[in-house]
Write a structure and sequence with these properties.
CATH architecture of the largest domain: 3-Layer(aba) Sandwich
Helix content: 10-25%
Structural class: alpha/beta
Number of helices: 10
Number of strands: 20
Length: 510
């Protein structure tokens, strides 16, 4: 099934005494809600926020100007990244609730399976938000399986959902870490008792006020979505998340440095509630949202320091991406709007999280491999959904026909090879519940809104009605402001049919 990695390596790079025959380590760093314009390398001004470590990756690697995630919300992008299949093809891939069962079932092959099959040690550290457990959902006081270890990961250290949803605990492999059996953890959708404090009944105790729905259980002075009780010894402080990710990543890399490894480093920054560690608070001019970007940048720098210290940098491919575009006010009063200044989180693009504008899915996308990727800027179209097929090509593993249905091999583009080819087209979606799509083919962009409430929105969560179909010329209108469907009816109809065929065919990879 496998080809010799050495043969593939020599074909790609040429063999010489300076080339290692070891398989490269692979680290995917996935930010959360980070916009195209949120880092310096993509236009953020130093007076607002500084990102020296991410900028260093961009300066020493390949910065993509058409790098995409596959959806404008967390769960579907993560599903597509791991499985190489558009999330709209599978029901239940919308934003996962606190008690969601495992969305990716053990029979589904993932990027971690590919690499594990080829001898890699594999881990996911950070935000999961893809559900845990069987059909009834997680057994928080028992074994949390199936989960990452059933889909290719040797090790996991997780924030099980997303931090504006309960519970605020870590999951290491199959168990809630530090859980006291005498203080069992309960997670539910309904208030467990009349005297259970909530963001409504005890609003005066909050240190970060909610403004939209984040008003159930209070933890660390912040209201959350969902209810939970118990598990007090297992609960964490929001401020310590980034430090914990770094601690666990460094420990795992150190333990596995003698083997080729794949690490999915899944940051929670800069998702709400934004409560960075005290040492980062006030480090930007954009309140906690900007401070969380600074904290994320620190995580990137700390990872790079670990690789340097262990002499692993020259044999590690690093891919930096975001799971979707930016959002400002997303349920909490954290001054994200008020402290924006002249910062443009989405760069030149319209929309952001929850939308099928370019700003929803075109994000920072950087590949870095010291000595192997030449520094530069690429306009090739690539997506997180392509990483599975691309690392399969890198390691010489053949993809199964019935898996990774939409993942294309864009390895040459990721590595910056001469005459490399990226994608010709890319489909984007929202959270899977509304049924909205974007299709970019070359410089043309089709938007299709199938939801009952057909609307688009901006970063301030302001919305307005739109037609079901619109067409934009990105070459002349990068902000998607003028519908040109009436001017180009042939292109308009062709792209409508193209999108429908992509949906109906059930796959795009041959």
């Amino acid at each position: 099934m496998k080809k010799s990695f050495l043969i593939i390596f020599c074909i790609l790079f040429g063999c010489s005494k300076n080339n290692t025959t070891d398989k490269p380590n692979i680290i995917v760093i996935m930010a959360d809600d980070l916009g195209y314009g949120d880092v310096g390398a993509y236009g953020a001004k130093p007076k607002n926020v500084k990102t020296p470590h991410i900028d260093k990756l961009a300066e020493g690697g390949l910065k993509f100007t058409s790098g995409y995630c596959s959806a404008s919300t967390c769960t579907p992008t993560r599903y597509s990244f791991l499985t190489g299949t558009y999330a709209f093809r599978k029901e239940g891939t919308g934003i996962a609730p606190p008690n969601s069962p495992a969305i990716i079932q053990p029979e589904t092959e993932t990027i971690a399976d590919i690499l594990k099959e080829d001898g890699y040690k594999t881990a996911v550290i950070g935000k999961w938000h893809l559900g845990l457990g069987g059909p009834e959902g997680p057994d928080w006081n028992g074994e949390l399986k199936p989960g990452p270890r059933e889909i290719g990961f040797d090790y996991n250290f997780l924030l099980p959902t997303t931090n504006d949803r309960v519970p605020q605990v870590y999951v290491e492999n199959y168990r809630v870490k530090n859980l006291d059996p005498n203080d069992p953890l309960w997670v539910g959708r309904k208030k467990p008792s009349e005297d259970h404090p909530t963001g409504i009944t005890h609003r005066n105790t909050l240190r970060m006020n909610w403004n939209d729905g984040h008003n159930n259980t209070i933890h660390n002075g912040i209201g959350r979505i969902g209810f939970y009780t118990g598990g007090h010894a297992a609960r964490f402080r929001d401020e310590d998340l980034a430090d914990e990710w770094q601690k666990q990543a460094e420990k795992w890399i150190e333990k596995n440095k003698e083997h080729p490894f794949f690490l999915f480093f899944s940051s929670h920054d800069i998702h709400v509630p934004r409560m960075p560690h005290e040492r980062f608070q006030g480090q930007s001019d954009m309140s906690y949202r900007g401070d969380a970007i600074v904290q994320l940048d620190w995580n990137v720098g700390a990872l790079m320091e670990t690789l340097d210290r262990l002499d692993l940098t020259e044999n590690t491919l690093i891919i930096f991406v975001s799971d979707n575009g930016p959002v400002l006010d997303d349920g909490y009063d954290d001054e994200a709007n008020e402290a924006l200044n002249d910062h443009k989180p989405g760069g030149p693009f319209s929309g952001g999280k929850y939308t099928v504008y370019e700003g929803g899915t075109r994000t920072p996308f950087i590949t870095y491999w010291k000595g192997m990727i030449q520094p530069g800027i690429s306009d090739k179209m690539v997506s997180t959904i392509d990483l599975a097929a691309s690392v399969a090509a890198l390691t010489g593993v053949n993809l199964p026909y019935d898996g990774f249905l939409d993942s294309f091999n864009v390895l040459d583009a990721l590595l910056g090879k001469t005459d490399a080819k990226g994608r010709d087209y890319i489909v984007s979606q929202d959270n899977g519940l509304r049924g909205n799509y974007g299709l970019r083919d070359g410089n043309w962009k089709l938007q299709r809104h199938d939801s009952k409430r057909m609307y688009n929105g901006d970063l301030s969560m302001r919305v307005w009605p739109v037609p079901q179909f619109t067409l934009f010329d990105l070459e002349n209108d990068i902000g998607e402001t003028k519908d040109v469907s009436a001017e180009y009816p042939e292109i308009f109809n062709t792209m409508k049919n193209q999108l429908q065929k992509i949906i109906d065919d059930g796959r795009t990879r041959n």
